[in-house]
Amino acid sequence: MTPKEHAKRHPEIWRKFSPRETLVRYAWMFGIVLVAAWSLRNLDIPWFYFLDAHKQVADLFRRMVPPDWGHFSEVMMPLIETIHIATLGTIVTYALALPVAFMAARNTTPNKLIWFIGRFILVSSRSINTIVWALIFVAIFGPGPVAGVWAIAFRSIGFMGKLIAEAIEEIDHGAVEAIEATGASRLQVLMLGVLPQVWPVILGTTVYRWDINIRESTVLGFVGAGGIGIQLYSSINLFAWDQVAVMLLSILAVVILSEFVSATVRAKIT
Amino acid sequence: MTSYPTSWKPPTLFPNETLRYITMILGLAYIVWSMSSLDFDWHRISQGLPRAGNMISRMFPPDISRWELLVKGVKESIEMAFASSFIGMVLAIPLGLCAAVNLVPKPVYYIARSILILTRTFHEVIWAIFFVKIVGFGPLAGVLTLIVASVSFIAKMIAEDIENMNPGQAEAVRATGASFPKLLIYAVAPQILPRYLGVSIYRLDANIRHSTVVGIVGAGGIGMTLSATFKRYDYDFSLSILLTIIALVFMGEIFSNWVRGRLR
Amino acid sequence: MFEVTDLEIQYPNGYKALHGVTLTVSEPQVVAIIGSSGAGKSTLIRCINRLVEPTAGSIKLDGLELTTLGGSGLRKARRRIGMIFQEYNLVERLTVMENVLSGRLGYVSFWRAYRRNFPPQDIQNAYELLERVGLEGRENTRADALSGGQRQRVGIARALMQKPDILLVDEPTASLDPKTSRQIMRLICELAHEFGTPALVNIHDVALAQASADRIIGLSDGRLVFDGKPEDLNEEALTLIYGEEDWSSTIKDDGDDEEEGVAGLTKAKTKAGNGLISEGAAG
């Protein structure tokens, strides 16, 4: 074997990507950076704010510590109200999402039109954020927790309905066929053939969404839809940072607790 | 012939009937208590339906005469989403590495994890309102909010992926005498890269959604415009903004699904 | 009295699954339907309770025309037709009792079904059937905790709960091991005779079919090519049903991997007898 042949069979250079692939990869990276930079530039961000940002943050911390624990008694009721809004909203969702899920699942929908309506409800519910729904319901019902409950419910229908509809589409069709073959009515087939199969998913998503809703309902007050957000907003506007600290800590406790409850319950199902 | 029972009850989660009824009564009692404590303004609520009708009638036809304002808001929202996704994606890497228990010393791990918990616990809008207080109204507060949310989300995914990765591969690379940074490049990165990119793209989609709401507390984007229309009972313009948001979210989802499909 | 006349099925893509099948079952007997995969066995059975829609022909159960029924008429007819499935098709997350009681769904209101409030007579009947299929004391077990053979026993009990006028049995043993297959098949035949219910059984296993059925029907490419007693099923008939090549490989070498042991037995019997396969190949 001549050295030339040897070099050809055992080259000294190995590249994971061909030059073309390398070029494409770098082009992608460059493109992403470019888009990000262009976006930032267009936003006209006053960068000089950052010069003293660390001082600002330190100052904020100093004002928050020690928290004004005497304020806790006033936070208590709004905090409970926040949990109530999340729970009631989830209960309402539970009642509304089930029929919509059956409408939007291909194998249980009565016809194409109803399927389309079901899908439309799911998509629009999910596209509009809870706080935007809250804006709408505050305009309808006036400020207060009722608007919050409906906002939570309307946002959650899309979330739960979508997951439940997907679960319905994945059920074992054989069991449904067997129930049909006994001469059961349509409703009976849904109840005994379909529902037991998706039951764990329904319970799981309900509890999971409740956990998310606790977090969501902490900010409903910013647009006047009840809960602890109202107090939080006014304390922030009054620069009463020691009170804000109390509220943030209580929100932290409630959210972590609800996450724990939800995770425990979901682990028990199935 | 033996006789067979004539009644049967499905087994329940509860050991006996009494406990079942007690649980049901407690559940009902909770609902009654929560409803009664919510301090409903029944007068206002009773007007809800006609008010909703009135509102809907005022929403139609949607007003698109002020489309420049609409386009400006949407553009700002998209720019906020792009900028914050990119910065979040970059910043999430160090935080994610620090939050992986099998990679870093315990103290670093605990600090990183508590940052993750803190940032995830508070709703984006709470962060937004904080940043508005610190840097003032405008898109900067929004970008900062979305950065916090993105970093937290992506870093958590990275940490979980690293913790779940195949330890054999890292061991093999370590056995060659590789240093820590080399270990990251050769054993960790290849295992988590596809998911990392996927999650980042998903986050871009989520940021587009969230960029439409942080404006409600003054942190820039189309949400600010939307909130203003509600304050001015300008419902026909509200509807055109809402429809635009739905379309935007929809396109964001399609885009993110398309990119993630190509990544595989 | 059960009659199928000139039954045809043509799928929208033009494929014909059944070409005019005619068959009459006038006494309570177990009729095994054999034929290679795709011969239309399953289609024929599913046509009878209209899980598959026939395109032409007629099916009569005690004089009632089934092919033209719709809505509640179909549901009423389905109450009288019990079905046992290959994959058992139980509702996995429900208890054994709920699965068995679902055989009575056609007779109770939605609300009673929701409250699981079935008539005492049905409950008693269910307990009796559970004992009969060998699942005594398992009524509160969830179906997904049962083995394949036990699930099929629940499936049998569910079908018999309907007090059917005819039993449709679709490959009852295809998902089971050979021993359980034989037990299940024996149970189905025993119960069918005991209740005086005619049964149509799709089955892959020729030896098992011969051993347990009163009558054998052979389908080939959607056509009925054999109808007779198990004893009449000779090499010639099997060639007609399964085709030359398939048949020779099944009989001459122990080739068929699914039924190796059985094929071996069949071969031995064939050689011992006079070219006819006698009963009890796998008893």
Account of the 3D structure:
- The complex is a heterotrimer of chains A (270), B (264) and C (283).
- Chain A is mostly helical and 270 residues long.
- Chain A has eleven helices and no strands.
- In chain A, helix 4 runs antiparallel to helix 5, helix 4 packs antiparallel against helix 9 and helix 6 packs across helix 7 (145-169).
- Chain A is flat.
- Chain B has 264 residues and is an all-alpha fold.
- Chain B has one domain (67-263): MetI-like fold (Orthogonal Bundle), CATH 1.10.3720.
- Chain B is 77% helix and 0% strand.
- Chain C is an alpha/beta fold and 283 residues long.
- Helix content of chain C is 39%, strand content 20%.
- In chain C, strands 6-7-8-3-9-10 form a six-stranded mixed beta sheet, sandwiched between helices. A four-stranded antiparallel beta sheet of chain C has the order 2-1-4-5, covered by helices on one side.
- The longest helix of chain C has 18 residues, at 178-195.
- Residues 248-283 of chain C have low confidence and may be disordered.
Helix content of chain A: over 70%
Number of discrete helical segments of chain C: 11
Helix content of chain C: 25-40%
Q: What amount of the residues of chain A lies in strands?
A: under 5%
Which range does the strand content of chain C fall in?
Answer: 15-25%
By helix and strand content of chain A, what is the structural category? mainly alpha
Q: Tell me about the largest β-sheet of chain A.
A: none
Strand order, largest beta sheet of chain C: 6-7-8-3-9-10
| CATH structural fold name of chain A | MetI-like fold
Q: Unreliable segments of chain C (pLDDT under 50, ≥5 consecutive)?
A: 248-283
